[in-house]
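Journal club prep — side note

Before the paper discussion, L.F. wants everyone to see what a predicted structure for a comparable chain looks like in token form. Sequence:
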Amino acid sequence: MKLSPIRAQLHAMVLVYFCAAAPTLAQTVYRCGSNYSDTPCPQALSVPTADPRTAAQKAQSDRATTQTATLAAQLEKSRRADEAEADRRAQAQTKEAALAAKTTPKNKPDNETTPHKKGKKNKKAATAPLQETKKPKLNKPQKPQSFTATVSVPKKPKP
């Protein structure tokens, strides 16, 4: 039976948890001021490390952990599928844009005459008005691009 990578990681995490937790149940932990250590220091206080939960509470906690891990795996799978779909859409849009750019005719300048049927010139294209461009107004003062607020400090009255 082959496990999925997520499920294999979950099994490994549970195994590491139990292997690491087993020796700590028998160890004594000492509090030295605000530090905790497994070696006593002068005036050290012994700290209880036993798990106060019942077997039912521990089983309930383990089930909740498993459910959370399962949900996380499902959400990751959904996220990866959404990302793959977004990549496919982006590639399709890029291809469509490239195809549209290749198939559209190149624009000719307005002052160039285009031949009409039977070799005649198109008079409308030759006499098209020039587009006017807006000129910048030089006489009006420019608005500053940044703003600085200043506050005047009241003067102290003279005695």
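L.F.'s comment for the group: The first strand starts at residue 29 and ends at 32. Keep this in mind when we get to the figures.
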